[in-house]
Design goal:
146 residues; 2,3-Dihydroxybiphenyl 1,2-Dioxygenase, domain 1; four-stranded mixed β-sheet; 2 helices; 8 strands
Length: 146
């Protein structure tokens, strides 16, 4: 059996992704307040470069996925931009179009600027709500109609 004909190894699910923040404490507080994530009670060193900073990992309590928020000593404090190599954005799914409206209201109450809900059919039907974290990282909440 060749590599091309073998089945891909299994993936059990989404675990975490990590971002770098200019102000670790402010970003941790924002993700707690806006997304309801809960920080683990320890910090995590950068593997292989432990002296360069550390991360706080925040857990989504119901679904058990996580976001790592990193502090790097060498971070110059430049806001994130999807126009350079690296993270463009990340998106989370919601169950209904009405959930997007509820999220828009929630973000308003939290003082988080957002795009409002956009419904589109091009290139496929979906609805999306776009907003940004304190470092300008774009987050999206997406509903795909069934």
């Amino acid at each position: 059996m060749t590599a091309a004909t073998r089945a891909r190894p299994a993936i059990a699910g989404f675990h975490h992704f990590s971002i770098t923040a200019t102000d670790l404490d402010a970003s941790v507080a924002w993700y707690q307040r806006v997304l309801g994530l809960e920080p683990l009670p320890m910090t995590f060193p950068h593997y292989g470069a432990e002296e360069s900073g550390h991360a706080v990992v925040l857990l989504e309590p119901a679904q058990r996925w996580a976001i790592g928020i990193h502090r790097h000593v060498a971070n110059p404090g430049t806001p994130a931009s999807e126009t350079v190599t690296g993270l463009d954005h990340f998106a989370l799914a919601v169950s209904s179009r009405e959930d997007l409206d509820a999220w828009a209201s929630w973000l308003d109450a939290q003082g988080v600027a957002h795009s409002g809900v956009t419904d589109t059919t091009d290139p496929m039907p979906y609805s999306v709500l776009v907003f940004r974290d304190p470092d300008n990282i774009q987050l999206e909440l997406v509903h795909l109609p069934g």
